[in-house]
Design brief:
- Helix content is 36%, strand content 25%.
- It contains eleven helices and 16 strands.
- It has two domains: 279 residues, Zn peptidases (Aminopeptidase), CATH 3.40.630.10; 112 residues, Alpha-Beta Plaits.
- It has an eight-stranded mixed β-sheet with strand order 1-2-4-3-5-16-6-15, sandwiched between helices. Strands 10-12-8-13 form a four-stranded antiparallel β-sheet.
- It has 398 residues and is an alpha/beta fold.
Length: 398
């Protein structure tokens, strides 16, 4: 395997400028969830250029491609990259800043696509050196419910052929550029969205005895729901209940008829996840009624928790240390952020890992979803290389 590793490293170095150019093109032209039409067209053009057959228009804008090695029926490994951007106005002075006003690749999906295209080119070059098939999955809409992974699965992306394992890579500004991070078992939280409409009786703010104040009720609800985290949850079960939006049509001297709250639920246990929703309904409705008002509650089911397969992740750790060295691979902590890669990992053994993109000397330190987010593009060399390496190691595993 040493000669194969050397070949992959050499090709990753050779293709770094091309993959960097790909990333910059994608960064300039971000598209929102399920609207990645030009992104899909660009990916299709690259796959055609590389001579890799593909199917497009999967889950509207998704693309699936196959690279067949020796004995293609022997084993199948899937590699996944997400495609969509975020509704964020970019604050950057780079020459590859977004030209689509109010849309930005602030979560690094441009780097994910570029890495997978680079890995595809490498794997296609060395396809006579591995046994089995690599399935490339370019997935739309990771950022927007119901999630492109779920829709692609419903449309048969994990069939014909069915993968024996799947890898997903995500940039990570908390790790130095080029390092790899991973964690077996539970890694990222489930996510649900909470929408509460608090109803009262509006009127003049200076005559509070004549009204039922939904602003006051909503304020009590936001505070009261924190007891789910501080008093109801187990200390060993990480839980988040947060509200990011409170809106009403009131004024300084006008109490509105209703107030809307929007928030999230994050945790790792499916049974506790269900109980949290019941607690939110009971606490919110009970409190509103006790203050003379009422509640309407809608909780939208989001992604399940990302649970990495223990055995696959242990093998991936070993593959990564062999490719990069022990000091370049780190174990990650559990995170309360969410990812729809979880749907793939529920169906086949999965490993969702991180690619470090931080460079403090260059000032590349901004967090994901920040308007100033960027990556150290040197990380793309390991980004494409490690994806290709994971695939061939898993396929060639005895």
């Amino acid at each position: 395997m040493n000669s194969l590793k050397d070949s992959i490293k050499s090709l990753a170095s050779e293709y770094l400028q091309e993959v960097t150019d790909i990333r910059r093109h994608l960064h300039r032209h971000p598209e929102l969830s399920f609207k990645e039409f030009e992104t899909a067209k660009f990916i299709a053009e690259k796959l055609t250029e590389y001579g890799i057959p593909f199917q497009d228009k999967v889950a509207r804008t998704g693309i699936v491609a196959l690279i067949k090695g020796k004995d293609p029926e022997n084993k199948v490994v899937a590699l996944r990259a997400d495609m969509d951007a975020l509704p964020i106005k970019e604050k950057s002075d780079t020459d590859y800043c977004s030209v689509n006003e109010g849309v930005m690749h602030a979560c690094g999906h441009d780097a994910h696509i570029a890495s997978l295209l680079g890995a595809a080119k490498i794997l296609n070059d060395i396809r006579d050196q591995f046994s089995g098939t690599v399935k490339l999955i370019f997935q739309p809409s990771e950022e927007y419910y119901p999630g492109g992974a779920k829709v692609m699965i419903e449309e048969g992306v994990l069939e014909n052929p069915k993968p024996d394992a799947i890898f997903g890579q995500h940039v990570f500004p908390e790790l130095d550029a080029g390092k790899i991070g991973m964690r077996p078992g539970k890694y990222m939280a489930s996510t649900d969205e909470v929408y509460i409409t608090v109803k009262g009786k509006g009127g003049h703010a200076a005559i509070p005895d004549k009204i039922i104040d939904p602003v006051l009720i909503a304020s009590h609800i936001v505070v009261a729901l924190q007891q789910i985290v501080s008093r109801k949850s187990s200390p060993v079960m990480p839980t988040v209940v947060s509200f990011g939006k409170i809106s009403s049509e009131g004024k300084t001297n006008i109490i509105p008829d209703e107030v809307k709250l929007e928030g999230i639920i994050r945790t790792f246990s499916e049974s506790w996840r269900k109980e949290i929703k019941e607690q939110i309904i009971n606490i919110s409705c009970g409190l509103a009624e006790s203050m003379g008002g009422s509640c309407e509650i809608n909780i939208e089911q989001g992604y399940p928790a990302v649970v990495n397969d223990d055995d696959l992740t242990e093998r991936a750790w070993n593959y990564a240390t062999e490719y990069l060295g022990h000091d370049q691979v780190e174990k990650l902590e559990m995170r309360m952020t969410a990812e729809d890669f979880s749907y793939f990992a529920q169906k086949v053994p999965g490993c969702f890992y991180r690619l470090g993109t931080r460079n403090e000397i260059k000032g590349i330190t901004a967090n994901l979803h920040a308007a100033t987010f960027d990556i150290d593009e040197s990380s793309l060399e390991n980004g494409m290389g490690i994806m290709a390496w994971f695939a061939v190691c898993e396929l060639n595993m005895k």
